[in-house]
Amino acid sequence: MRQTLIKQYAQLLIKCVCKGNYPQINTSSDDHNHNHHHHHHHFLPHRRNSQPLFVPRDVDEEILLLLLLGQSSTLNEAVLDWQPEYEAQRERSHQAAYNILSLLAIFLSRKQAFHLIADSYEQALRFSFEHFQTWYNYGLALISSGQSFRAYLILKECLRMQPQNIQVYLQLSKIILQDIYDLPSLFETFPSSGEDIQPMLKQTFTQQQQQQQQSQHEQRPPFIDLIDEAINYCQQAKELQTPPLPRSLLLLALAKSFKARQSSIHHDRQKLFQSAIKELRECIELDPYDSVAHFHLAQNLSFLNQTNEALKSIETCLLLSPDDKHALHLHTLLLTAKKKIPEAYAQIYRATNEYPDINLLLTKASIEEELYGCEQSIVTCKEALVVWKNEIEPLVMNNIHHVRGISNSSAGNRTIGRSQNPSINMEIENENNPSGIIKAEDGIKNLLLLGIRPSSGLVNDENNSLINHRSSTSFFSIQPIYFNLIQIFEHLVRYYIKLDKIDESERCLKEILLLNPFCHQIFYLRGLINDARGQFKLAKQNYNDALAINPFHFSTLIQLTKLLIQIGNYSLAEKYARDAISIQPSNYQPWYLLSLAMEARGEFEQSVDVGATAVHLEEDSPIVSYHSIIRVL
Predict the structure, then answer these.
(1) Which segments of 324-474 are extended strands (E)?
(2) Are 423 and 206 in contact (CB under 8 A)?
(3) 166-178 vs 223-240: helix axis angle to the nearest 10?
(4) Per-residue pLDDT, 113
């Protein structure tokens, strides 16, 4: 009876009461009791007053109090006995708990407190054996709270319960393609292994700390293995329904496209791209108004240098979704590939005014370099720095209070309590900063409070609770949260070098040295600066150091090839040019450098053929690689 009343009262408050009409609960009835003490004393109930009495201040607090009381009651009264004679009681108790959890999930989802929803469903799992909906809702809550890999494991359990459920197949594929790994930094370290990829950018520092303390069976498998798993899930979803769902075809094409970008064998890559294009065309036949499918068709056609067909597809995408920033970006790159630079600049100018996105701004800077020179590009890069600061500053404000939360947390899998979660407590007291807010203008050192140390081996701070044990691979990596920052400073260094402002480029490099002085991007930038100064031996050493950390960094391979041709080491230059071709075979730069190396070695006939290939590729080459656009759905 108590559970029923709590549920019905909470439903009434959710449906019918708003904050403006909420009557405050008045607990002070002393005057009323004093006036009627002699006449009604024997009718008044005994009132127990205590200092820590909680009184809801608004309707939201009262709803949350009711639902948490109902949840506690149903969890405590749950029937855990699995004897056949208790089956009816067990189902009733589970249904009562599920009803309360559903109301709690509806209410908390409005407040974006998904971590509380996940905690509530996790507590309900102990009496929800083989109850699909409870497990599925738990997986969805984990996805919303940013715990993508745990959601992946839970949804695999859901798939075991209902192997014919298409939604589970599609949800698993989407998690693999979109949430588990950070795709921009993933494709930077191509091809991927199980250790050279960083966690997703969306994951907060709190979630990363929780994942570090989980058991070892939750270690992420290699990305390429997960992609094969996603392809398998999409194939099964495609076969479960005739005709297949357009979304299953779209995810299948995406998985094949991602696998193609990770393949180092040209024949396999072309075959996968062609297969992805086939799936996308079938998807568009079933749903011709899906703008995302048109976008991915255009991008995959671009990878194969089929620029005219790609332009038709991206224009259709923009007709269906004119405000799609990814489509605007791809359309700009295709216009640059057709050498329509003024039209491309007009497009990217409108896009950056509407969407202050870092990737769009960097593409704009590259076009401005072509049209107006490097000075205007530097101004645009500074705008990108402001955008990056504005994106990171909320993360700093939401996560800075967690510094104390870790040191005060108890041992075990849970590193923080509910009241210490960033989604609940937004402010803390700090001796130096009472508001609990850290300004991004204070420098990169304050951003390290997000949990990223420049080097755990070089910085020894016993009082800092954010120290984490990094693997030997991540020791040489930049965390995904700084990936865009590295890109911005890389552009700035190149522009200052072209303007012959070497000292300014050196200052830019010093700005990001704190992030990690041993990552391949830092060695690459050092090589650029030393190369500009004419210190070729030192520049070559910097490039070799960068390739020792990441042998697949395309920009380093190109610069090292140029340097080797300049100093006369043509055989080694040919080797690195071929390595660059294996990574981006549709890019004209390594083909052109390969032809120069062959010509210097006296291989004139082969040099002419390779040079012709470079000229053919340059005709449809965009100003920025199509691989710079990373999108799932």
Answers:
(1) none
(2) no
(3) 150
(4) 85
Whether 204 and 401 have beta carbons less than 8 Å apart is answered as no
> Rounded CA gap, 123 and 127, in Å?
9
Task: Give yes or no for a contact between 120 and 71, defined as CB atoms under 8 angstroms apart.
Answer: yes
User: Biggest alpha carbon distance in the chain?
Assistant: 117
User: Which single residue is written with the structure tokens 């950018």?
Assistant: 201
pLDDT in tens, 134-184: 899 999 999 988 888 899 999 999 999 999 999 999 999 999 888 776 655
Name the average pLDDT for the chain.
Answer: 77
Q: What distance in Å separates the CA atoms of residue 271 and residue 87, rounded to the nearest whole number? A: 54
Token digits of residue 482: 């700084």
Helix/strand/coil for 199: strand
Q: Which residues of the chain have pLDDT under 70?
A: 1-3, 9, 11, 15, 19-20, 22, 25-53, 76-83, 86-87, 89, 181-221, 395-480
CB atoms within 10 A of CB 359: 19
φ and ψ of 445, to 5 deg: -60, -40
CA-CA distance, 156 to 217, in Å (whole number)? 14
Distance CA 488, CA 361 (A): 9
What phi-psi label fits residue 208: left (phi over 0), alpha (psi between -120 and 50 degrees) or beta?
A: alpha
The pTM assigned to this predicted structure is: 0.77
Q: Which helix (H) or strand (E) holds 205?
A: helix 205-212
The Cα 297–Cα 273 span in angstroms is: 10
Q: Are 133 and 95 in contact (CB under 8 A)?
A: no
